[in-house]
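Input (structure):
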């Protein structure tokens, strides 16, 4: 009987991607099979995130819950990876001595060796180094699950925004060579993938080596990806306003596979807050870039990330964020109250804003964005949208489900064999978290 692996993942899409890779690696090396049941696992793996508060406590809480499994059967191995592991490796050794393996986001490919070592040596094995791009050279062939896939194109971040731990936990920006990215996507496309989401903390800082010795920027990479047979939709997460280059704006004119939707984190609508965050641009530069994109793609919609209650954020600075949200008409947002992250410059900034005020601001901001999301969904009623069918709807087996270009879920009647195909759907109703529709054209049948 094959041994079982249980993975719990906290945090971002980068972490989800890493967890999938860990599962692939351990399936190949140790024949470990994924399970949803913690109690039957031979290896328990926690992939952590430290972007906001409580992450650390959450990790120790989870490890505490896993401890009895280890006490009952000392053959069970517990591994902790991701950003908390990278920052708090030594603390884990002290507070949870029963943990067998601690590894950072850049050493996941060394997991098989580390597990073996932990098993024989019966003591903690830790590797939280940043061995550049070696991680990607040691991954098994990608496996497609459905018509959508994530593909990492670069790792880390060199921007050092004053609030953010990523440069410390994931290291500086490192890009994968162009050919490696294209080989992975071609393999996925040959397994039926139609939509790729290119991942990185700052994909537009991409600078990938090419075989001829040149370097490709992100726009050039997009051209190559779009040329792969079968890839008809391209998304990417996340990009940075400062590096949103001319060539990338131009790509929206030249590459129809790029979706009419962009997630571009701005964090605040105030120039003074942006300066304190060390974002490296002003609001005018941001709105100017969005306006140019909108000129090329009139249907383009935008979403963003916001940090509310950055140290000393005044009422006026917050109101500027609200104005920006209205002005751009953001269709969606990820918004959180500022969380002081140990070791980052913003953690040492004095802060005189009451937490109750921060909570009120967050509520107001989220109410405004939600209203805009609903209004935009309403506006979609009566339009025909191109939908990539993902398969049977979860709630109703007579319906199928898919996503529009602006990433809304649409449920509509149709056979599940249309999974993996693009169809045209007339939107008939806007619900809170999804749309309903009627298929008007069957795509590629
Ligand atoms: N590369 C992206 C960018 O250009 O901003 C951000 C990546 S970051 C991992 C994801 C989001 O987490 C950020 O956009 C920010 O809104 C949020 N975030 C990061 N550090 C934070 C903190 N200390 N407190 C609250 N939110 C934070
Ligand atoms: Fe973090 Fe700023 Fe980089 S938010 S991931 S340091 S662009």
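Output (sequence):
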């Amino acid at each position: 009987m094959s041994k079982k692996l249980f993975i719990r993942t906290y945090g971002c899409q980068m972490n989800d991607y890493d967890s999938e890779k860990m599962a692939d690696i351990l399936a190949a090396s140790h024949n470990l099979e994924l399970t949803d049941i913690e109690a039957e696992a031979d290896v328990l793996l926690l992939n952590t995130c430290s972007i906001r508060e409580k992450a650390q406590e959450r990790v120790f809480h989870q490890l505490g819950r896993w401890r009895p499994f280890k006490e009952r059967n000392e053959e069970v191995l517990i591994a902790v990876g991701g950003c908390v592991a990278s920052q708090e490796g030594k603390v884990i050794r002290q507070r949870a001595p029963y943990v067998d393996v601690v590894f950072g986001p850049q050493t996941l490919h060394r997991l098989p060796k580390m597990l073996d070592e932990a098993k024989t040596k019966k003591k903690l094995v830790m590797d939280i180094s940043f061995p550049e791009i070696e991680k990607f050279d040691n991954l098994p062939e990608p496996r497609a699950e459905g018509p959508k896939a994530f593909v990492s194109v670069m790792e880390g971040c060199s921007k050092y925004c004053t609030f953010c731990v990523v440069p410390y936990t994931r290291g500086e920006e490192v890009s994968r060579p162009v050919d490696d990215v294209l080989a992975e996507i071609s393999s996925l496309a040959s397994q039926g993938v139609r939509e790729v989401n290119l991942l990185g903390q700052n994909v537009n800082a991409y600078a990938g080596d090419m075989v001829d010795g040149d370097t490709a920027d992100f726009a050039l990479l997009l051209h190559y990806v779009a040329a792969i047979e079968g890839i008809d939709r391209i998304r990417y997460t996340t990009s940075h306003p400062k590096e949103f280059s001319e060539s990338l704006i131009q790509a929206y004119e030249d590459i129809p596979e790029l979706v009419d939707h962009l997630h571009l984190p701005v964090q605040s609508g105030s120039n003074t807050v942006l300066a304190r965050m060390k974002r490296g641009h002003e609001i005018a530069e941001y709105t100017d870039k969005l306006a140019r994109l909108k000129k090329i793609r009139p249907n383009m919609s935008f979403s963003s990330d916001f940090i509310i209650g950055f140290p000393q954020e005044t009422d006026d600075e917050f109101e500027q964020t609200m104005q920006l949200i209205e002005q751009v008409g953001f269709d969606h947002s990820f918004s959180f109250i500022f969380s002081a992250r140990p070791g980052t410059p913003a953690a040492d900034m004095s802060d005189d804003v009451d937490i109750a005020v921060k909570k009120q601001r967050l509520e107001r901001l989220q109410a405004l964005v939600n209203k805009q999301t609903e209004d935009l969904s309403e506006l979609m009623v009566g339009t025909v949208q191109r939908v990539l069918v993902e398969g049977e709807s979860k709630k109703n087996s007579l319906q199928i489900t898919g996503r529009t270009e602006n990433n809304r879920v649409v449920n509509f009647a149709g056979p599940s064999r249309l999974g993996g195909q693009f169809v045209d759907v007339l939107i008939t109703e806007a619900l809170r978290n999804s749309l309903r529709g009627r298929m008007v054209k069957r795509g590629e049948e």
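Notes: Residues 12, 51-52, 163-164, 166, 201-202, 238, 240, 265, 267, 305, 307, 336, 338-339, 341 surround S-adenosylmethionine (ligand 1) (CB under 6 Å). The two ends are 42 Å apart (CA to CA).
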